[in-house]
Design a protein that fits this description.
3 helices; 5 strands; 5-stranded mixed sheet; 35% strand
């Protein structure tokens, strides 16, 4: 479950790719937590352009990132959301908690 991190002044972009399901979500969460702890961004963007499938485990990944950013006093937004992943996020009402673009 590869992620890539691009640090910017005061912020970071983490690009997620592949399938975000119950098999890969734990690894992805750990990689994301480590990246956030290393970069300590005040603005985090999660780019989902490389995601090929997402189930409810993907919601847990996003909520974990939100919790970590809240602890830092920062913000989170999710961009480039594929259609299938968007359906999952919309059905769960994630847009009420996280900015989805």
């Amino acid at each position: 479950m590869p992620i890539t991190v691009n640090s910017q002044s005061g912020g970071a972009v983490i690009t997620l790719s592949g399938e975000i399901d119950h098999h890969g979500a734990r690894v992805m969460m750990q990689q994301m937590e480590d990246a956030i702890a290393r970069t300590l961004p005040m603005r985090l963007t999660l780019d989902l352009s490389g995601v090929t499938f997402m189930d409810s485990s993907g919601i847990a990944v996003l909520l974990r990132a939100l919790r970590q950013m809240n602890q830092l006093g920062g913000s989170l937004r999710v961009t480039s959301i594929p259609v299938q992943a968007r359906r999952v996020l919309d059905a769960a009402g994630v847009g009420r908690l996280i900015t989805l673009e």
